User: What shape does this take?
Amino acid sequence: MEYFCNYAIWKRLWVEMLEFVIALPLSWIFSTSEQQHMKQLYRQVALAQMEYQLPRLTKMWTHLERQAGGQVKGMGEKQIEVDKRILRTQIGVLRKELESVRKHRKQYRNRRISVPVPVVSLVGYTNAGKSTLLNRLTGANMKNGKEFLLTDTVGFIQKLPTTLVAAFRATLEEISESSLLVHVVDISHPLAQQQIHAVDKVLSELDVSSIPKLMVWNKVDRVSDPQKIKLEAEKREDVVCISALSGNGLDEFCNAVQEKLKDSMVWVEALVPFDKGELLSTIHQVGMVERTEYTENGTLVKAYVPLRFARLLTPMRQMCIS
Ligand SMILES: Nc1nc2c(ncn2[C@@H]2O[C@H](COP(=O)(O)OP(=O)(O)OP(=O)(O)O)[C@@H](O)[C@H]2O)c(=O)[nH]1
Ligand SMILES: [Mg+2]
Assistant: This one.
């Protein structure tokens, strides 16, 4: 398991670094926030690795002393001190950079909270296909769909060293602000069930049990009997089968997301004054409008809207009741 764990960390680092490098020439496509997110992730992992290495350096250089015998005693020790100093300086630089990125992310989050579009977060074990799904859906036209913000997260892995857990958790703290968590599973993986448990465990530690969840069984194109898997999924509630790679099942996925979001919305009836036209268009944008009536005093809207947005409408709801 230790080897598996190390392999997973290296794979993670490799993929993130590749994504980071690829993202650079495409910076005009990606939003600044996405780039910042990748940079933050890269720095967090690097920082966590260095912090992990620091106390372990002692062991790495003891061979020098053994090789040199009694003549140059202390050589290994000197090298350790130099290495430790280099690492400490690098850790200091990374910490500073991370702090500034965190500030930036916080500003971005505050801005996002003021725009009440529901946030849907993709979570799941590493390699499940979250990024592939996100890329597939970017720019996809959703029929009659309402807007929502789909965000990717870092993949979970089993048995992370404690320092890395802290770093990963920091990148995951944003999911607590989501309206819906989509748990992406690589159903073709022989250890799919264990991976589901591992993800559930991390989620329970993150205390997000109150957020509605939808499970997605991805990579159905890779299983030996896709029909059997699809039947199995149909028997269960809140499971959708897809292939992010081929695009199979994406319509069903989008419908399921819409349905789930609707469940998490609240019913409002509000009288929106005519001079608040922008509010009316936001209701159409983020909510699901069932009816509008034009009255003398404004537009009477009956709709499902995200809870956060319903709060904004409270004064108008009171006007409607009185
Ligand atoms: N056959 C098949 N492969 C897929 C599918 N979806 C994703 N993959 C492949 O699975 C690999 C991992 O996909 P990613 O989207 O990077 O997975 P991820 O969940 O973002 O992984 P992390 O970022 O490490 O958490 C890639 O090689 C994808 O091409 C699918 O539906 N079918
Ligand atoms: Mg990914």
Notes: The first helix runs from residue 2 to 23. The chain has a mean pLDDT of 75. The pocket of guanosine-5'-triphosphate (ligand 1) is lined by residues 12, 15, 124, 126-132, 154-155, 218-219, 221-222, 243-245 (CB under 6 Å). Residues 1-114 form one domain.
